[in-house]
What we know:
Elements: E1 2-11, E2 14-20, E3 29-30, E4 32-35, H1 42-54, E5 64-73, E6 81-88, E7 101-107, H2 120-128, E8 133-140, E9 145-153
Parallel strand pairs: 1-6, 5-8
Antiparallel strand pairs: 1-2, 1-4, 2-3, 2-7, 5-6, 8-9
Amino acid sequence: MKIVNLIFLIDGEKILLAMKKRGFGIGKWNGYGGKLEEGETVTEAAVREVKEEAGVDITESDLEHSGTIDFYFDDKPEWNQRGEIYTIEKWMGEPQETEEMKPAWFSFEQIPYSEMWVGDDQWLPYLLRGEHFTGEAHFVDGGAKLVSMKIFKK
Length: 154
């Protein structure tokens, strides 16, 4: 199972989401992140991904690990991944639109769950409350249908 990271910039009661403009997850709001490059740690990859996708600088020491979710795509096992999920409240620069992502701030009460991955509404509230969690999600139809999800507060 490949390891990926997912990073959410938090400013008080607002969260920065980004519309994926190409590739895996196109057309969905999500956090920043992706696959690790050879030799990278999860947090090193997080720093690189946020810089590439948002144009802002973060430091590894400011990342707060929020949770881990194993995502299984039952009809596409090559897509299976373990998501290491982080929040961060400090960064340098203003988030910018890039070739891959278009950012927008949302209040915690107005998150566009209907335009995100199915199931995000089940685990993202833990992150917003500052609670640590683990979980497992099973999808079919290329991720369009959630078969099951279990989330556990740590």
